[in-house]
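Late entry, fe (iii) ion complex.
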Amino acid sequence: KASPRVRQVTTSLIQHLHDFARENEITVDEWMAGLELLNEAGRMSDDKRNEGQLLCDIFGFESLVDEITYKLAADAADEPTATAILGPFWRHDAPQKKMGDTIVSGIESKDRTYMHGIVTDFKTGKPVEGAVLDVWHTAPNGLYEQQDPNQPEMNLRGRFTTGKDGKYDFYCLKPVPYPIPYDGPAGKILQAMDRHPYRPAHIHFILTAPGYKPIVTQIFDRNSKYIEDDSVFAVKDSLIVDFKPYQGDPNADFELPYDFKLATY
Ligand code: DHB
Ligand code: FE
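Prediction complete; structure with ligand written out below:
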């Protein structure tokens, strides 16, 4: 059955594709090369390698639709925590953990981090109970667990649920900058454009809570290389954080206090 929205965006897409071809005098050979790249991305895409998403991301497309989606929803002066792109490496069903647990397994590091804070309602400032914080980041070798046969299943991932006080805390690592996978179509395009594949050090989050709008976001280490030159354009000022050297905890080298603010529907 006809959908007005699908019809509108498809018509517009066709118009823009035609304009694009005319404007650049795209030849049959060039179109074929582009098509082959898309097909290759399709063939490569599985649950370990979202090459299609990677392609969108190096074009800044996921970042743009993120901005469009949540700008439409933003209302007042004091704002909820900003969103950022999901990226290709989130996994369903990360292990459920207890507050104070670690998501790190089998890794020696001098960047052990104690992250903690509170999830609040951005309008009332009240703690949010039952908020689920889904977190994931890479190992020091720059690889997510599903990209790396040497890491245990679901390493560096976890889901934490807040109690009445809205507080959360867990142990992770101070993340590192690393390249997005560049041995496929996205890498070819980066190379053709003379662009690097690196992302600044970041930690990913999805926050959900009953009665609140979910947010997908990332936080970024202020001191990380590429903080001003993210290959997938995800950095926002309000998401830049400071890892503080931490004394007095035998399990942590850094402390990262960070609060999340959610909006109701
Ligand atoms: C992309 C995002 C990530 O967070 C990441 O770790 C790798 C790639 C991306 O947007 O393509
Ligand atoms: Fe990432």
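The first strand starts at residue 96 and ends at 97. Will revisit in the morning.
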